[in-house]
Amino acid sequence: MNAIEVRGLRKDYGANTAVAGIDLHVAQGEVFALLGPNGAGKTTTVEILEGHRHRTSGEATVLGEDPGKAGRHWRSRIGIVLQTATDSAELTVAETVKHYAGYYPNPRSVTDVIDVCGLTEKAGARIRSLSGGQRRRVDVALGIVGNPELLFLDEPTTGFDPQARRQFWDLVRTLAADGTTIVLTTHYLDEAEALAGRLAVIADGRIVAEGTPATLGGRETAQATVTWTDDTGPHELRTDDPVAAVAALAGQNIGGLRVHQPTLEDVYLDLIGAAA
Ligand SMILES: Nc1ncnc2c1ncn2[C@@H]1O[C@H](COP(=O)(O)OP(=O)(O)OP(=O)(O)O)[C@@H](O)[C@H]1O
């Protein structure tokens, strides 16, 4: 059974359509990323799946239940890390995590959660004394302390330094290896590429492409660009066969040889541009 099944999902705010009929599924144990520009409908979609917003129409099943009707037990099986940070500023990190653990029937060990989120040194520090990135880690700790089967991460690494981002990626991989299904929204293409098994791009409330990071938008068959310079000047060649193009240059007096395969970001920007 899939962790998430969505058919024809739609959300209107008055005359404004935020989600315009989305079909998607997320398999159990999968890391699935939702990409898209500001206002595309990612948060609305995810909040409907979390049971925090009502849909206008369409069908949604999350862990076997309709998120619009599911109750407390269902909620305890889901972890959520929202964009907005927690604010229990006077409590310490350990107190906050312990407090949240109390809401769940089957919580993880508070010490383990603090450790896996890289907060051990800050366990006794008050939340208000933490940096932005450290607070974000507390948000993640609160999202996973209930030992969720399904974890929603909404732009989880915004404000992280590069090292913290890598550590967070390791944490997501650890959770995924334990069998947690993860739905990630992000604006970082490298993050989606590093973590997601599959991803979908939303623009204007619709899914405009879906695939693996390697195949999204025809990336694996897209042309490469070979550039080089010789004594007549710079050259650029778009080709399906960059190996043959480079081989043809062997033995010639050239410099600055480069082969550029489209990155996930190139493909994404093309998709978004085409949808606009
Ligand atoms: N409560 C609301 N009332 C009216 N319109 C809303 C409401 N929430 C979202 N919208 C509109 O729905 C659309 C989709 O918003 P949403 O927050 O889902 O986008 P997003 O893809 O998550 O964007 P971002 O990357 O900026 O977080 C936007 O046009 C937004 O203005």
Automatic annotation (TrEMBL):
It is found in: Cell membrane. The keyword Nucleotide-binding applies. It is a peripheral membrane protein. Signal peptide: none annotated. Residues 4-229 form the ABC transporter domain. Keywords: Antibiotic resistance, ATP-binding, Nucleotide-binding, Transport. One of its GO terms (molecular function) is ATP binding. PANTHER family: ABC TRANSPORTER ATP-BINDING PROTEIN (PTHR42711), ABC TRANSPORTER ATP-BINDING PROTEIN NATA (PTHR42711:SF5). Belongs to the ABC transporter superfamily. This is ABC transporter ATP-binding protein. It comes from Actinokineospora xionganensis.
